[in-house]
Amino acid sequence: MNKLESRRKFLKRGGLWGAGLMVAPMVLRAETLGLGGRVGPNGRINIGFIGMGGMMGAHMGLSQQAGIQPRYVCDVKPDKLAKAKEKMSGWNYEDVVATPDYEDVVHDPSVDAVVVATPDHWHAAIAIAAMRAGKDVYVEKPMTLTIEEGKAMVEAEQRYGAILQVGSQQRSENAFRKAAEIVRNGWIGTIKEVYAMLGGFPPPVLGPEEPIPAGFNYDKWLGPTPYEPYTAERVKGSYRGGWRRYYEYGSRKNGDWGAHHYDIIQWALGRDHTGPVRFVPKGFEGEPYSFYEYADGVKVVRDHPETKGHMIRFIGSEGEVLVSRGGKIKSTPVALAKRPLGPDDMQLYRSMNHKNNWLEGIRTRRCPICPASVGHRTATICHLAALAERLKRPIYWDPDKEAILGDPYAKRWQSRPRRSGYELPA
After folding, report:
1. Taking Cα atoms as reference points, which of 133, 349, 387 lies closest to residue 252?
2. How many other CB atoms sit within 10 Å of the CB of residue 317?
3. Phi and psi, residue 282, nearest 5°
């Protein structure tokens, strides 16, 4: 038995595991337990990886960095868990514990930080549980399933002093930062419209019920969401639709590519702590495209055909800038894309690597480039745009009060009922 497994068994016998933690979560903080407190500037970071699907592949590479010690891999799907354990063993991390229960990870005081790459409907509960246990968090985008979850995550980040990074990694890519700086510095004049290319998913597949694979805790996979008969398509990875097809678990393409592009648009417009006021779905009163609009009239249009082969196009009164992954950036006037910042120009937060920016934050306690407060505002846009599409009518939003206006039914969707046993941690 390795030392980590011994510690887990000790904690279980000692009564620290389970319901008692919900009453007094702070007893789990490392400093309270005499285990060394927050990671120091040169200290080793012990990490638990939760959700071993396709998105976790790149995150597991953190284990190859100096000063990083993986402690857990966690997934409710036995095949994903076995593959993750095998990969860690191949990297000579034989001591890594494989568990289907995220509680094992967040309740272990030897773990300093967790990476959460589950489907969207589990992000908030796991992240909040980890933060209240004294851990730092990297959580995939979009940060939440609902607006009210986002408020709870922002509050937890502040209450527990956590370093939380949302996986909106385009903020750490040079081309997107450059485009945002061009806009923020007024080099293309007043912004009139922004086009964002999201693409689409096929509709949800509601096929006949299928047998649940052996060893797969489907009930826990569903977590707080409504119980639905099992089908392989419902729980399949999100790259070709899978669970992202279903509104029960996310915001479809708004929560997929929208979480990236809307985030950059917020950043470029200087609106990380506010948001739009109106969301209009495609087809409403003949509208050819879905869009949302800020109070000053700036309109963000989804899937406009004139993105000119780029992911985002900012259109200003004196020019434009277009940007995509792979370092693609193009501007009119042409020279703007390579124009250096002057001494009086605004320079945005510079992160050269998204995950390393998080690790640096863990060691220095410096706020990362995309904390919960920022991720929440972007996720709110994703949720409201998706809600307008589902209801097929405009949604009006007060970004100061963070409330849907004039539509009591729509306002109910700022949160969602959670199944018993899967309540959001306080």
Report:
1. 387
2. 11
3. -60, 135
- The ranges of the chain annotated as CATH 3.40.50.720 are 3-169
Top-tier CATH class for 170-349+372-426: alpha beta
Mean pLDDT of the chain: 91
Q: Is the per-residue pLDDT at 292 higher than 90? A: yes
Q: Round to whole Å and give the CA distance between 301 and 291.
A: 4
What global pTM score does this model have? 0.90
Reply yes or no on whether the pLDDT at 14 is more than 90: no
The three-state secondary structure class of 218 is: helix
Among residues 361, 324, 365, 350, the alpha carbon closest in space to that of 171 is found at 350
The distance from CA 133 to its chain's CA centroid, rounded to whole angstroms, is 20
Q: β-strand 395-398 against 278-280: which pairing, if any?
A: antiparallel
* DSSP letter assigned to residue 392: T
Which helix (H) or strand (E) segment holds residue 367: the answer is: none
Residue 19 has pLDDT above 90, yes or no: no
Which of the four pLDDT bands, split at 50, 70 and 90, describes residue 319? very high
Q: Are strands 278-280 and 319-324 parallel, antiparallel or unpaired?
A: unpaired
pLDDT for 239: 67
> What is residue 160's three-state secondary structure?
helix
Residue ranges of the chain assigned to CATH 3.30.360.10: 170-349+372-426
Is residue 318 over pLDDT 60? yes
Span 33-45, mean pLDDT?
63
270: left (phi over 0), alpha (psi -120 to 50) or beta: left
Written as one letter, the residue type at 268 is A
Distance CA 334, CA 188 (A): 11
Architecture of domain 3-169 in CATH? 3-Layer(aba) Sandwich (3.40)
Contacts of 279 (CB under 8 A, 6+ apart): 290, 291, 292, 293, 384, 385, 387, 388, 394, 395, 397
The reported pLDDT for the residue numbered 20 is 30
What whole-number distance in Å separates Cα of residue 290 and Cα of residue 140? Answer: 25
Angstrom distances, CA of residue 174 to CA of 48, 204, 421: 29, 36, 44
State both tokens at 138: 């990297």
Alpha helices (runs of H) in 276-414, residue ranges in sequence order: 354-364, 372-391, 408-411
At 220-260, the pLDDT tens digits run: 999 999 999 999 999 998 766 799 999 999 999 999 999 99
